[in-house]
Amino acid sequence: MEWLQRNREKFFSDWYNFNVPVFFLLLCFLYIALLLLKRLFIIDSIAAFEILQERGEFWVFDIIFGLQYLSVPFFLAWKFLFTTFLLWMGCFMFGYRLTFTQLWKWVMFAEVVFLFPEAFKVIWFTVFVSEASFEQYQAFYPFSLMNFFDFQTLPGRWHYVFKSLNIFEVLYSLSLIAGVFLLSGKKISISTYVVLSSYVLGMVLWLIFYSLVYG
């Protein structure tokens, strides 16, 4: 973190000086492209879906995937809004005077972390797994706690929870800590407390709520 502090100005001038609307549209495009790749190279190759296509019943999934494409901008906007609000509240509690706009921009910047597991999933099911069921596809999330359990015997209430507990969430939380640290110019320890008491706590409470209500 000392290296980040020394190169703080250079980082903001070289890497962080991007156009927010254009970056948002780029994220939407990349997520939609990954959804399309998963549809073309994974979903269409699963036997159950091939049978549905032969029977002429695949139109239902065409509608579902079409809605997924359309929902990407709304999902990302809601995610950025909620995450930014949590961080803003955390900063406020610790006396960090960071604006909502500053935090929103960093939350967008950090979202790049979650593009990697989506790309990894495409590679995994197209290169390393020749035959897979739709249940296997749904249950898989790279480098997650889910990989240590058999999804067929694990109660459904824990599928989403265990997939959410993954290495990319850890990297994302670390990136948020780095963001608060760089934007505020304050101590890394306080920045860590900010993220732990806001985003991480919110994530834990959401997973507990999900496991209790949707189980």
Describe this protein's structure:
The chain has 215 residues and is mainly α. It has helices at residues 2-6, 8-14, 20-41, 47-54, 59-93, 100-110, 115-128, 134-139, 159-164, 167-184, 188-213. Helix 5 (59-93) crosses helix 11, helix 6 packs antiparallel against helix 10 (167-184) and helix 10 runs antiparallel to helix 11 (188-213). The mean pLDDT is 86.
Spatial separation of the terminal alpha carbons: 41 Å
Order of helices and strands: HHHHHHHHHHH
Mind summarizing the main beta sheet?
Answer: none
Structural class comes to mainly alpha
Which secondary structure elements does this structure contain, and how are they paired or packed?
Layout: H1 2-6, H2 8-14, H3 20-41, H4 47-54, H5 59-93, H6 100-110, H7 115-128, H8 134-139, H9 159-164, H10 167-184, H11 188-213
